[in-house]
Specification:
- The chain is globular and about 35 Å long.
- By secondary structure, it is mainly alpha-helical.
- The chain is 61% helix and 4% strand.
- It has 5 helices and 2 strands; from the N terminus they run H-H-E-H-H-E-H.
- The chain has a two-stranded antiparallel ribbon.
- The chain has helices spanning 3-17, 23-30, 40-49, 54-61, 71-86, and strands at residues 38-39, 67-68.
- The relative contact order is 0.13.
- The two termini are 17 Å apart.
- The longest helix is centred in the last third of the chain and has 16 residues, at 71-86.
- Helix 2 (23-30) packs across helix 5 (71-86).
Length: 94
């Protein structure tokens, strides 16, 4: 999926449901009641039980197979992945 198509999809979604919540707030709602530490798979299960958005479920599904000690640890892992996706790739990696 190209960035342009993704941006277009996000714009269409925002016009229907409003702007997205900040990541931290969405995660806290999705993981409400979670007892840490939890694996990435367990986090996804808790989020499904809490009727999290498809975006949050997708992000949780992209986490590495590891154990997370808090919602903040999950947020840091996700923000690291998001930053890495936006970072320019070295010429040798292309």
């Amino acid at each position: 999926m190209t960035r342009e198509r993704l941006a277009q999809g996000v714009s269409e979604l925002e016009s229907r449901v409003g702007p997205p919540l900040p990541l931290a707030e969405s995660l806290h709602k999705a993981l409400e009641g979670a007892v840490f530490p939890l694996s990435a798979r367990q986090l996804t299960w808790v989020a499904r039980e809490n009727e999290a958005s498809a975006m949050v479920l997708s992000l949780l599904g992209s986490l590495p197979r590891a154990s997370f000690g808090s919602v903040d640890a999950v947020a840091r892992a996700l923000e690291g992945d998001l930053d890495a996706a936006d970072a320019p790739q070295p010429a040798s990696a292309r």
